[in-house]
Structures are given as structure tokens and as C-alpha cells.
Amino acid sequence: MLAITLHLSLSRKLKTKLELTHMNNDNQDYLLQKAREKLDKGSYRATYKILAPLLQTNCAEALYMYSKFSFLRKETTDDFQKRTLRLLEQAASLGHGDALYQLAVFYDVGDMVDKNPDRASQLFKQAAETGHTKAKVSYGLDLFYGTNGIVQNQPMGLMLLQQAVDAGIEGAAYCLERAKDHSTGGVKAT
Predict the structure, then answer these.
(1) For residue 36, what are the CA distances in angstroms to 31, 167, 184?
(2) What's the average model confidence in pLDDT over 113-132?
(3) Which of 6, 74, 83, 94 is the most exposed place for a label (fewest CB within 10 A)?
(4) What is the total count of domains within the chain?
(5) pLDDT of residue 23
């Protein structure tokens, strides 16, 4: 009886693994949307249950979403932070813009990691290259001023800042105005 149970268990795991491998984008998008809805409602356990099969496939969006919450009472704050960083690093390595941006913020301010402005700038750059509009502000400023290990390119910096303004990112218009003032050698009174 034990051999039959073990065989069934292994067969189910293999079937599940095969199903996950062949999950199409529509199924994945549907599950991600359902997970977002549950997450927005604060239903963390339900969110995790939806994300679980996607986590097994290393889905970047699922990894990012799971980095944002904890539902296990036994998970300490330290454990949660370690898991968050691990998941963000995984999602970032897959090119996930939000994960890249969040890691950049952590390195920029020294939250959960040692402060490292150069590492933050590289992550902001990667996030901006994915189209992440908030990252365009930080990377645009680094480009404009040539700071944090980024080679100066004022026209490219201004272009990214303008894109962030056009997207309605808070503070982008102020940053763009200051950069333009700096490039003309004058500073307008505020």
C-alpha cells in the first residue's frame, strides 16, 4: 500500500511539474490578476495559494508579488526581510522592472542592505531600461549630473526626466526644472 501511495504522490508531482512547464501566458496572466485582486484585499494566504504554481516556474511577477507580504506567523521580521531580498534578487535577475526598482531603492537608502549608491544607480539604470518610469527620475539625474558611477550624458538625462514628467511621476517636474536651470547656468527663484 505504501508503494502505491508513494507512486501516486510522485505521479501527481510529475504531472503538476509538467502542467506548470506548459502553462501558457493566458493562464499565467489570469492567475497573476487573481493574485493581485487577493493581495489588494489583504488576503495573503489566498494570494500565496494562487502564486504557488507560478513561483515553481520562476515567474518574475509572482516572485515580486510574494516579496511584498508575509502570512506565516512563524516568519520573523528578519526571515521576512531575507526572503524579500532573495525574491527581489531572483525577479530582478529575470529583468522585472519593479523588482529592480525596489532593490535600487533599498541600496540607495540602506534599507535591509548596506547603503551603496553605485549599486543603486546600476539597478535604477536597469529598471529604467525596462521602462520603469520612477526609475527614470533617478537614472536621469545620475546621467545628467554624471554621479554614482554613471557617465554623464545631459541630453539623455533630460530626456528620461521628461519621460517621467509625461508619465506624471511625482517630483519629476521639479527635478527636470532644476536640471534645466543647472544646464543654463542659472537657478530660478522658487
Answers:
(1) 9, 22, 45
(2) 97
(3) 74
(4) 2
(5) 64
The pLDDT > 90 percentage for the chain reads: 80
Q: Centre a 10 Å sphere on the Cβ of residue 178 and count the other Cβ atoms it contains.
A: 16
pTM comes to: 0.83
Cα 176 to Cα 180: distance, rounded to the nearest angstrom: 6
pLDDT in tens, 40-58: 999 999 999 999 999 999 9
Long-range contacts of 144-147, Cβ-Cβ distance < 8 Å, separation of 24 or more: 144/179, 144/182, 144/183, 145/179, 145/182, 147/117, 147/121
As given in the structure block, the three cell numbers for residue 85 are 531580498
C-alpha 88: how far from its chain's center?
A: 6
Residue bearing cell 545620475: 142
Looking at the structure, do residues 57 and 143 belong to the same domain, yes or no? Answer: no
- Cβ proximity of 97 and 83 under 8 Å: no
Residue 147 sits in a domain whose CATH number is 1.25.40.10
Residues 82 and 125 placed together within one structural domain of the fold: no
Please check whether residues 15 and 70 belong to one and the same domain.
yes
The cell for 172 is 519629476
Whether residue 134 is found in the same domain as residue 166:
yes
Instruction: Supply the range of the domain harboring residue 148.
Output: 97-190
Q: Is the pLDDT of residue 152 over 80?
A: yes
The answer to whether the beta carbons of residues 43 and 35 sit under 8 Å apart is no
Q: Which of 33, 66, 94 represents a domain boundary (last residue)?
A: 94
